[in-house]
Amino acid sequence: MTTLKAVKQASTAAALKAERERDMAQAMRDYENEQHARRANMARLRALRLAKEQAESKGTAAPRSTKKKKATTQTGSAT
After folding, report:
1. What's the average pLDDT block by block, 10 residues per block, for the chain (79 residues)?
2. pTM value?
3. Which of 18, 41, 60, 68 is the most exposed place for a label (fewest CB within 10 A)?
4. Any idea of the CA torsion for 45, 51, 57, 62, to the nearest 10 degrees?
């Protein structure tokens, strides 16, 4: 006959195994999502680079950002 202690150990072991399997599945989903995001970003950057290279080869300048840098001014009192 099995003892109560053996039954508790078996159920605890089964629960731990199930938890490890859930953790493993979640880790795989996270890894796959990160890989998908990385590949999408690489494809986006590649498309931008190719468009820039194509524009440069045609002799036209690639569109640039119209942001202007702020001029820094120093204010202080000279005594």
Report:
1. 77 93 98 98 98 90 62 60
2. 0.55
3. 68
4. -90
